[in-house]
Amino acid sequence: KLPLACPNKCEVGTVPREDMEAHRKECPLEMIQCDYHNVGCEVRMARKDLVKHKKEKMEDHLMMTQLKLAKTERKLESTEQQFEKRVNRLEVMMQQMVISGERQEELLVSTRWFLHLSSVAASCDQVCPVIVKMTQFSKQQQGNARWYSEPFYTHKKGYKMCLRVDAAGNGRGEGTHLSVFLYLMKGPHDDELRWPLREKFEVKLLNQISDSEHYRVSCSYDNAHSYSAGRVVKHDRAEGWGFDKFISNEDLHKNCAKYHFLKGDCIFFRLCKV
């Protein structure tokens, strides 16, 4: 049990090497973020000063929280209006279609599932498991673009990540496959997390007509290079880790009675920890 000096030079003095991580989570001199950093407070302080800071900045924190809540409410209101318009358009289309009862029921199931995917993908609370929606797929593919999702977290106060999709393929999959990669990002909780990242994720390409027959691939960070799994310091994102050949273009565009992966020029992914 090799003793190490506390890097913060607190009163404890030395701590056994294997206990250092636990000590730093309690050390009164460890520099930490304010509990209100998620609503905009960027102050960092020694742990022992946190209570004093929150007491002195109570009004500022309340104002930040109110502004954040107002912004979230506006976003939710806009999202609800968009979905209401989409539902109304779908209802009009169904009224105009002369189809059998069996076909109409199939369309209803497909519509409900699509709206469910869209509503989850628009969620403000992006913590795994998350659903990611990529729009304008044809444009992305023709332009050979690299598309990045909105950031999400592996868990509450966890690792910050995003998904990258190359619609035209990358590397060994260029021109023949859809390429998908996970990226670690510089996050607000990095000081409190264990590095390098050692997690396993499941990436699903979702079937848009039923909650079954999804296309799934596992992505493990156990063997990832340090520049993909290590803490992000210099840039906003680390190097990507994933698949040049996630799914072939043939399978992606194949439509049958059981599954449609690409529909309305959109695709959906679901990401979760395994």
Q: Helical segment tally?
A: 7
Find the count of extended strands (DSSP E, 2+ residues). 13
H-E order: EEHEEHHHEHEEEEEEHEHE
The global form is globular
Mean pLDDT: 85
Helix content: 25-40%
Q: Stretches where pLDDT falls below 50 for ≥5 residues?
A: none
> Roughly how many Å is the radius of gyration?
23 Å
Helix/sheet category: alpha+beta
Strand content: 15-25%
Summarize the main sheet.
5 strands, antiparallel
Distance between the termini: 34 Å
Summed up:
By secondary structure, the chain is an alpha+beta fold. The protein is built from 7 helices and 13 strands. The strands form 4 sheets. Strands 6, 7, 8, 9 and 12 form a 5-stranded antiparallel beta sheet that branches.
Explain how this protein is built:
With 274 residues, the chain is an alpha+beta fold. It is 32% helix and 23% strand. The protein has helices spanning 20-24, 50-56, 58-96, 101-121, 137-142, 226-229, 249-253; strands at 3-5, 14-16, 31-33, 44-46, 130-134, 146-148, 152-153, 160-166, 177-184, 200-205, 215-220, 241-248, 267-273. Strands 6, 7, 8, 9 and 12 form a 5-stranded antiparallel beta sheet that branches. Strands 5-13-10-11 form a 4-stranded antiparallel beta sheet. Strand 7 and strand 8 (160-166) form a beta hairpin. Helix 3 (58-96) runs antiparallel to helix 4. The protein is globular and about 70 Å long. The two termini are 34 Å apart.
